[in-house]
Amino acid sequence: MLRVDGINVYYGNIQALKGVSLEVNEGEIVTLIGANGAGKSTLLKTVSGLLKPKQGKIEFQNQSISGKAAQSIVKLGISHVPEGRRVFANMTVEENLELGAYLRRDKAGIKEDFGKIFELFPRLEERRKQHAGTLSGGEQQMLAMGRALMARPRLLLLDEPSMGLAPLLVKTIFRIISEINETGTTIMLVEQNAHMALSIAHRAYVIETGRVVLSGTAAELNESEQIKMAYLGGH
């Protein structure tokens, strides 16, 4: 579904991604593991059109999306939930979700999707008239995911969905990510909590200082001594 081929990405003179290649097949959850500053978020931003690669190419469903504008990429079926959630604090939960569907014209479908989002996230239905800024961190994360899903993406990019959340909520968020995947959405997940990420992913890539240094099935990486030492707290 997604093919990233030898991309180099720079912030000014600093090279953030160095010849990164990877692929995501339809129906998979693929996770990117790596330390802070390794280039994981940069990769998601490049796929979603917020950053442009200097070299290399990105294809989504056999169509080149390298250098395309972010809104065109959303239209093609890629939604990005950024790190830090970025909900519109002064708007209600309902208004935030409506914004997720701003490229759509199918009123009946939008209404149906509201129902689906509230099924996935009952808490959001209870808070639908509340301003997003008054929600807890976990609720804001649910809202950011719900908003992205309102665009009916084929590929959902999730950047650090568990960041700053209490352990119990982390479990809930990961359960919901699995449910979203089971209903047919392909997911690319960036996550500091390698243990949780590998527990739900099909495959994983390890990124260090802008390069892919290791890849394999989630089960293989879970067993890898190198990964255990570096990212799973040595157990």
What does this protein look like?
The chain has helices at 40-47, 70-76, 93-100, 107-120, 122-126, 137-149, 167-182, 194-200, 218-223, 225-231, and strands at 2-11, 14-24, 29-33, 55-60, 63-64, 78-81, 155-159, 186-190, 203-208, 211-217. It has a single domain, classed as Rossmann fold (3-Layer(aba) Sandwich). It has ten helices and ten strands. Helix 3 (93-100) runs parallel beside helix 6. The chain has 235 residues and is α/β, with parallel strands linked by helices. Helices cover 39% and strands 26% of the residues.
CATH superfamily: P-loop containing nucleotide triphosphate hydrolases
Compute the separation of the termini in Å.
34 Å
Structural class: alpha/beta
β-strand number? 10
Order of helices and strands: EEEHEEHEHHHHEHEHEEHH
Total number of helices: 10
Q: What fraction of residues sit in β-strands? A: 25-35%
How many structural domains can be distinguished in the coordinates?
A: 1
Based on CA atoms alone, the radius of gyration comes out at 17 Å
Low-confidence stretches: none
CATH class, named Alpha Beta
Shape: globular
- What is the CATH third-level topology name? Rossmann fold
| CATH architecture label name | 3-Layer(aba) Sandwich
Helix content percent band? 25-40%
